[in-house]
Amino acid sequence: MPSRSHQFLIFMIALVLVSAMPSNIDVKEHVLSFNIVHKDKVIGNLTATKTISDATIRYKSITAIKTRIIKEIEVDYKYDVLYENERLKKSSVVIDVNDKPYADIITHKEQNTYQIIKNSKKEKTVEGDIDYATILLYFKEPIGVDRCFSEQDGSFNSIVSLGNHVYKKINAKNHENVYYYTDGFLQKAEINGGLIKFELIAQN
After folding, report:
1. pTM of the prediction?
2. Does residue 32 contact residue 20 with C-beta atoms inside 8 Å?
3. How many CB atoms lie within 10 A of CB 39?
């Protein structure tokens, strides 16, 4: 029977061999950072992350805005969007205002439809596959794309190419945002938030 020292040596060799084995899962991560600017003043920031693992891509974004509209207001957005085989699988959008829950929107795929649930109540059903959601606007220039799915309100927004890698997005409320790209990645966006207009400026 091997001595304890021999058992420990065998264990350590096995551990080294296991750790040296190549992983079948190739995980890649890309992080983008943006300043949120209103009237030449930074009022917040946005961090977007894209993580690729085989046929699965997870997009996340965290946005924090603090400004004054009549009174001080702080808004936080958290997006968590999962793609499988280049199709939307599910998404979650959580919005807090002044540290209090404001909205919780979930979209999840069931066979050939998407169920959209807002604040625990079913809002609507969307049919067909969704291949381009709004969170992709940070990472992928919408070349040849004429609409995108809004994870926040469960509707489709129109996308219009303005030429020279500039695009206009029109949402369900007819608010227009303009996006500027360099080498396929978002560099700047002009956002119409209704009560407030601001810019996203890439920091990468």
Report:
1. 0.84
2. no
3. 10
In sign, the C-alpha dihedral spanning 38, 40, 42, 48 is: positive
Tell me the HSE value of 51 on the side-chain side, using a 13 A CA sphere. 10
The domain limits of the chain are 25-202
Ramachandran assignment for 98, one of left (phi > 0), alpha (psi -120 to 50 degrees), beta (any other) = left
Residue 193 phi, psi dihedral angles, 5° rounding: -90, 15
Residue the block writes with tokens 């999840």:
108
Both structure tokens of 80: 């968590």
Tokens standing for residue 194: 């209704």
Tell which residue, 124, 125, 167, has the closest CA to residue 148: 167
3-class SS string, 125-171: EEECCCCCEHHHHHCCCCCCCCEEECCCCCCEEEEEEEECCEEEEEC
Contacts of residue 45, defined as CB under 8 A and 6 or more positions apart, other chains included, come to 33, 34, 35, 36, 63, 64
CA-based nearest residue to 78, from 65, 60, 91, 90: 60
Summarised one tens digit per residue, pLDDT across range 118-151 is 999 998 999 999 999 999 999 999 999 999 999 9
